[in-house]
Amino acid sequence: MNIEVIEKIKNIVGNDFVLENESMAGHTTFRCGGNAKVYIIPGDEEQLAKVIKLCKENDEKYYVIGNGSNLLVRDEGYDGAIIEVGNRMSEIDIRGLEIVAQAGAKLSSVALAAMENDLAGFEFAYGIPGNVGGAVTMNAGAYGGELKDVVKYVKGINKDGELVEYSLDDMNFGYRHSRVLDEEFIVTSMCIELMIGSYQEISMMQQMLMMKRKSKQPLEYPSAGSTFKRPEGHFAGKLIEDAGLRGYQVGGAQVSEKHCGFVINKDNATATDIIKLIEDVQSKVKEQFDVELEPEVRIIP
Question: pTM here?
Answer without folding.
Answer: 0.93
